[in-house]
Write a structure and sequence with these properties.
single chain, alpha/beta, eight-stranded parallel beta sheet
Length: about 250
């Protein structure tokens, strides 16, 4: 069984009621490759709006979740609250949260465990800075981020890994297909040695970092690239072309 191609759209802190409705309408009307799993992550205020209007077969993800079930955690959102609202996925560990909000590897791991234990799917983000890449530490950085999760999560069947080189997010710079495939292959090798051969075989590894309709075709052909986590382009009609990258 091949790994099902997966395309996620991370809207980040973008959109309003009208634009979210327009994006949802566009996805509902589009001819999407039925073999691709599609998940969109609007800002939390619009999660219910998106879920209510999206057609069946397209899922909705939160951009973040907390690792406690409830309580005095102002501004946070729990796994159960998401599940009750029909939200089936969450992003965890996006570099913007790691860098701007100082979320460390252990906190990311704890949130991943809470989400999986509560029945959500997790898009687990990892990636290196430009300094780390230039120092030759890419694989070390990425596997250290993943190792923290492996220490608390044993079942990786609901984890999708998103490799996002920080230097390529929103900058217009894209890792070459060779650079991306090299890291994806190293992640798969790490899964084999640190988790299990089954996890290495079945876990989807997405590429994220200035993915567009222009570069997605070549990236989609790589052996270990199982889809994309798309940022800015997910707000545009061209998101449909990225979803259909494998079939076109």
């Amino acid at each position: 069984m091949g790994r099902q191609f997966f395309v996620g759209g991370n809207f980040k802190m973008n959109g309003n009621i009208k634009t979210i409705r327009d994006i949802v309408h566009n996805l509902n009307e589009a001819k999407l490759d039925p073999s691709v799993e599609v998940v969109i992550a609007p800002p939390s205020l619009y999660l219910l709006l998106a879920r209510e209007h999206l057609r069946e077969g397209i899922e909705v993800a939160a951009q973040n979740v907390f690792d406690k079930p409830n309580g005095a955690f102002t501004g946070e959102i729990s796994v159960d609250q998401l599940k009750e609202s029909g939200i089936t996925w969450t992003l965890v560990g996006h570099s913007e949260r790691r860098v701007i909000l100082q979320e460390d590897n252990n906190f990311v791991a704890s949130k991943t465990k809470a989400a999986i234990d509560g029945g959500l799917g997790v898009i687990l983000c990892c990636g290196e800075s430009l300094d780390q890449r230039e120092a030759g530490k890419t694989i070390e950085v990425v596997t250290t981020q993943l190792k923290a999760v492996a220490e608390v999560v044993k079942d990786w069947s609901k984890v999708v890994i998103a490799y996002e080189p920080i230097w390529a997010i929103g900058t217009g710079k894209v890792a070459t297909t060779e650079q991306a495939q090299e890291v994806h292959a190293a992640i798969r090798q790490w899964l084999m040695s640190a988790v299990s051969s089954e996890a290495a075989e079945t876990t989807r590894i997405l590429y994220g970092g200035s993915v567009t309709e222009k570069n997605c075709g070549d990236l989609a052909k790589q052996l270990d690239i199982d889809g994309f986590l798309v940022g800015g382009a997910s707000l545009k009609p061209a998101f449909v072309d990225i979803i259909n990258a494998k079939s076109s």
